[in-house]
Amino acid sequence: MAHVQVQIPKKRSDGARPLSVVALVVAVICALPMVAVLLASLSGGTDTVQHLAQTVLGRYIGTTLALVVLVATGTFAIGVGAAWLVTMTRFPGVRFFEIALVLPLAFPAYVLAYAYTHVLDHPGIVQTTLRDLTGWGPRDYWFPEIRSLGGAACMLVLVLYPYVYLLARAAFLQQSGSTFLAARALGSSPWAAFFKVSLPLARPAIAGGVLLTVMETIADFGTVAYFGVQTFATGIYTSWFSLFDRVGAAQLALCLLSFALLLAMLERAQRGKARYHDPARQTQTAPAAVLKGWRSVAAMLLCGLPVVFGAILPVIVLFFMGIGSEQNLLSARYVGFIKNSATLASVAAVVTVTAAICVGYFQRMKVGRLSQSTAYVARLGYAVPGGVIAVGLMVPFAAFDNALDAWMRATFDISTGLLITGSIWLLVIAYMVRFLAAALGAYEGGQAMVHVNMDAASRSLGQGPFGTLRRVHLPILAPSLLTALLIVFVDVMKELPATLIMRPFNFDTLAVQAYQLASDERLEGAAVPSLVIVAMGLLPVILICRQVGRR
After folding, report:
1. Among 342, 337, 382, 379, which Cα is nearest to 528's?
2. How far is CA 526 from CA 116, 222, 296, 324, in A?
3. Which of 22, 111, 233, 535 would give a disulfide with 358, using CB separation of 3.0 to 4.6 Å?
4. Which of 318, 302, 308 is closest to 112 using CA atoms?
5. In whole angstroms, what is the distance from residue 185 CA to residue 509 CA?
6. Is 185 strand, coil or helix?
7. pLDDT of residue 546
8. Mind spelling out the 3-state secondary structure of 406-458?
């Protein structure tokens, strides 16, 4: 009897080592700004720290904390309230508001600051009309100051509440209606059942959303700088460019970095608790309350005002501002701004998503502490403000460029200049560090659809790790990767502090142009690049809205 020998394909390891090396290099690059800021801050000794403590540190801490409290409170109130109304009640237009409430996510806060300053400032249309109607002089009445801490908080609340809204809405949808109905059966009113049952169950998701808004708040530069609010973000930029005190900038960055890392740990802890919101546990859906009369009008106002003030009104104001400006969007100069912005955003999106694929797949291939730590470090960049990342990258690479230039001069009498510092590639690395967490989150969300049995089947057919990634994972993850590319593209378009600090000479983007025009009080001119930024930001938001509508 002839024996038939069945040859089992050997498990190949092609691509495993390069992917692992790239993932580890990405983690090292993400950790580099934090380590560099720590070392640079320690090089200044205690004299600079004492000077900062005696002059600006207390003001920066107080203003930053006040801004954080105001934004956290506002985003919590609007996000949770709107999420509860669109999920648990029915009123005219609820389906429209369910989607429209996400639209302000496409707007940078500094764009809203330009629009509302044009309308509400002393020479704006609101105060001018008020003086014309009443005959009052400039000192005869009181009007809220838009360029203030409260004004900056309002701008940030209007563009950041969708973070809380999306997470709170998802948590409310995943809750079982049995607990809410049991509370109602025990005599609790709808509001009492909401505060005693629904809100505590959704607390991890809501806390995660609020912490995201807080991290965005401490990272904001354009809004607070334009309104003259002195926070850590503006202090870092002032120390670096105006005072030329790099040690002071590094020490301020270290203070902000410590607070940001604390928030990142809190967000990670809350995200871990949020796993208890399991959709499979939903056995009964709570009936939606039908609102009538003044209650339905109140619900429409509560859901409509954030959309009007966060999206519709700013677009109208910016459009009319742009019509009256001297800026020509079709001129060679503006075409250059658009080209620079699109080039940076496209390259950064591709690099960032590629890094996310390497880190995410490494975490799937090599389950253990090393891969988990790699992914954790890669996510920390989202909690680190762009100004801190810029300082953390500029300090070590500037030292490297100077050392290389000195060695080349001494050895070959050739000056290499600044090869890395001030280059586009260093700016792209900063974008990758800043937005890798967003790309990694989108990748991991799609990767959950790829069952481990698919990997086993691919290996049994002779595919190694790289072949499995190329032939199995990437085709399945194409929608998630496209979403990640769009998210990073728009985030880079809106990023201001890192671009201001690290951009090459004579290389301006739309965000930089808008900021420079607004700094010169040429708000009509700033409206033109701002509108382009908003237009490019609407695409991923529309995709998110489609997903919300399908759900």
Report:
1. 337
2. 13, 13, 39, 11
3. 22
4. 318
5. 59
6. helix
7. 67
8. HHHHHHHCCCCCCCCCCCHHHHHHHHHHHHHHHHHHHHHHHHCCCCHHHHHHH
Cα distance between residue 138 and residue 180, in whole Å? 54
Q: Annotate 60-85 with DSSP letters as a single string.
A: HHHHHHHHHHHHHHHHHHHHHHHHHH
What average pLDDT score do residues 120-141 get?
Answer: 85
For 122, which DSSP code? T
Q: With contact defined as beta carbons under 8 Å apart, do 149 and 133 qualify?
A: no
Give the H or E element holding residue 487. helix 478-494
Q: What burial letters (b/e) apply to 402-420, b meaning 16+ CB within 10 Å? A: eeebeeeeeeeeeeeebeb
C-beta of residue 233 within 8 angstroms of C-beta of residue 220: yes
Dihedral sign from CA coordinates of 162, 163, 169, 172:
negative
**Residue 302 pLDDT:** 92
Rounded Cα–Cα distance for residues 395 and 393 (Å): 6
Using CA atoms, how far residue 97 sits from 83, 543, 548, in Å, is: 10, 16, 11
Give the β-pairing of 289-290 and 89-90: parallel
Greater confidence (334 vs 71) lies with 71
Q: What gap in Å lies between CA 334 and CA 38, rounded to an integer? A: 39
Judge whether residue 152 has pLDDT over 90. Answer: yes
**pLDDT tops 50 at residue 277:** no
- CA 103 to chain CA centroid, Å, is 15
The CA–CA distances, whole Å, from 477 to 60, 115, 261, 480 equal 43, 39, 30, 5
The separation between the first and the last C-alpha atoms of the chain, rounded to the nearest angstrom, is: 62
**Residue 420 CA to chain centroid, in angstroms?**
26
Nearest to 33 by CA among 268, 249, 223, 325: 249
Indicate the DSSP class of residue 284.
S
Across 232-250, average pLDDT:
74
Residue of higher predicted confidence among 178 and 115: 115
Measured distance CA(301)–CA(44) in Å, rounded: 54
Backbone phi, then psi, for 464, in 5-degree steps? -85, -175
Q: Which pLDDT score, from 0 to 100, does residue 267 have?
A: 62
> Residue 314's pLDDT band (boundaries 50, 70, 90)?
very high
Token pair of 237 as six digits: 């930029």
Check residue 381 and report its DSSP letter: G
Share of the chain above pLDDT 70, in %: 83
18-27, 416-425, 444-453: which has the minimum mean pLDDT?
444-453
Residues forming beta bridges with residue 290, ordered by sequence position:
90
Average pLDDT for 183-196: 65
Query: C-alpha dihedral over 55, 56, 58, 63, to 10 degrees?
Result: 150
Q: So what's the pLDDT on residue 196? A: 65
The pLDDT of residue 5: 46
Out of 63-72, 115-124, 298-307, 416-425, least confident range: 416-425
CA-to-CA distance for 149 and 30, rounded, in angstroms? 32
